[in-house]
Amino acid sequence: YRGRDDSAQAHVLRRIDDFCERWMQNRTDPSVTMEAAFSWLRENIGCIGPELSLVHGDCNFRNILLDGDRVSAILDWELAHPGCAAEDLSYIKTDVEKVMSWQEFFAAYLSHGGIPVRDAAIRYFEVWADVWRTALAAMCHAGYLNGEHHSYLYGSIGHNEFYNSLDPLCANLAAL
Asked: pTM of the predicted model, to two decimals?
């Protein structure tokens, strides 16, 4: 990925635009919160650095195998894409903070060759994670209503998750 001329910002913007377009085409209800969130993400892209990284896309403790006290494998790479290292860091931060301080983890990450990222970039991707989860939930519900799938469970969970995630997303945006 690093041999390409694109920046991490360009890759992230393409993902945001793609997700926004899919959400707009598949939503069941309009949402001012989602519109504001997509706008905020586009307007604040400058808080992430330009350095392009390989992003796992689902970096959490459920996708890590341990052998004693060391990581022996990272699993489930189907969501991997070029982007910004802060995306994976923001995604795993909640898991890390359950077992150690974020500062201690981040220092170890950097000492083992991790790419430096700003706190603002981590926060940016925390908002992005809220946005893609909320949009995905809405699309799951819409898929059921539009006959793209026939799983009532999948459709109803999507419906509930969409509406349950709007308030926290709104609170995150208001706190910025």
From this structure: 0.87
